[in-house]
Design brief:
2 copies of one chain form a homodimer.
Chain A lengths: L6 E4 L8 H11 L3 E3 L8 H7 L15 E4 L2 E4 L1 H11 L7 H25 L12 H29 L14 H16 L1 H7 L4 H11 L2 H8 L21
Parallel strand pairs in A: 1-2
Antiparallel strand pairs in A: 1-3, 3-4
Helix pairs in contact in A: 1-3, 1-6, 3-4, 4-5, 4-6, 6-7, 6-8
Chain lengths: 244, 244
């Protein structure tokens, strides 16, 4: 237990998932946090599940990730990032920039949902293996049509940003850059063939991925045990049959 | 053209869709707005599509709805509602309440996405009729498992709100209440059997639906030609075979 850590993150212990977008912001901010469900022998899972329980907490979340910051208990990834961005200089201060960052983050949330539905197109209550034919159809559509539409959109955002430095919003690092890094990393893990085939269409986006990965705090995090590997329980899953 | 209207809404002209959550907020606030793509003979669709075009606008949206407010061009439904809520007293002023409202709105966005995927589980580039068997499987899972999980969650939010008045957030109307009204109305249109079967589980939520519908500005809107009917081009579609 780190009773002095300003933040507690509640998320499933074995996957990057949506929690990873929050972890990256906390790591880039350089603030201490406890990844509650990953603590050993301290009933971390119980504490995580309590954050979803209306009988225990006034503001229960429908699903993790959930962040505790003192008296505040905050759910929904984009909501947490908006909060952390304002607190730690990972978002513009002016209204227009804040709105734009939140808008882009919500668009990242949309593609992340679509990535999830590639392996679970019919039901989250069935295993992947029980919906594989539908998953093939959905993933083929995703890699051929949706993925290039989304990444082309984000490439355009970078191209049209008048500020220098190849950031999504303004001229400084924001949580949107961190999330775009994670999106590219995850898509490369899940769909290496589709990404390799199309990558020349997104030079700015891939350069942003590399520049985020090279930032000292992020590079240290990615080498640490705090960074879980991608796996087939998370959102970005590599099933070769979905990436012909 | 209403050159003095403070807001221009860019959304598809023939459907309620996600634009309806924004329309309800504008109507409840009692502010003038132009529903741009629905203007006759004024190239409304062209203007709407320009809001998505990075060659024309600095902050293009990936998809509508988009709201113009003077110099600001704002995309993503929850982002627009957060903006309007703060401006027009449709959200709490204090940080904790603002975060909670945004969190609930993002959870509404999640179930709305799942409603959409009931009729389009495999691809947004195919017609419903081309993915009907998969749609039946997805809709059966949605109505049996996901719908009660989400609506039970929102019922709990209302039950556990310590303030009086049966509102989602605090003791006053917020954009979350308006969106919950639209969610219930849409689900009743799309899945009347599933909703009738389960409705006794959500007395607070259904009472909130009725109280929002009875508010003078909302009641006047619902009777007006500005309120489009539900139809099978929107998000909430009624296909009897998906609602056994």
């Amino acid at each position: 237990m780190h009773p002095t850590a300003p933040y507690q993150l509640y998320y499933w212990p074995g996957i990057q998932g949506r929690g990873e977008f929050v972890r990256l912001a906390l790591e880039a901010a350089g603030v201490a946090y406890v990844d509650v469900a990953r603590r050993r022998g301290e009933r971390g899972m119980e504490a995580m599940l309590a954050s979803l329980d209306g009988a225990v907490t006034a503001h229960p979340s429908f699903a993790p990730p959930v962040l505790r910051a003192g008296e505040l208990l905050i759910g929904q990834t984009a909501n947490i990032l908006q909060f952390l961005g304002a607190r730690h200089g990972l978002a513009p201060r002016a209204q227009q920039g804040r709105l734009w960052a939140n808008q882009l983050q919500l668009t990242i949330a949309d593609i992340v949902n679509e990535v999830h539905d590639c392996h679970h197109p019919l039901s989250t209550n069935l295993y992947y293996e029980q919906q594989q034919p539908a998953a093939r159809t959905r993933a083929a559509d995703f890699t051929a049509r949706r993925l290039p539409k989304y990444l082309g959109y984000f490439e355009g955002v970078l191209v049209h940003n008048p500020a220098r430095g190849n950031h999504a919003v303004g001229g400084r690092l924001s949580y949107v850059d961190l999330s775009l890094f994670q999106l590219v990393a995850g898509l490369r893990y899940a769909f290496p063939n589709a990404m390799a085939r199309q990558q020349q269409a997104w030079p700015r986006l891939l350069a942003l991925h590399d520049s985020v990965a090279a930032r000292p705090r992020i590079a240290a995090y990615l080498k640490s045990a705090r960074r879980l590997p991608f796996n087939e329980d998370g959102i970005f899953r590599h099933y070769p049959e979905l990436d012909r």
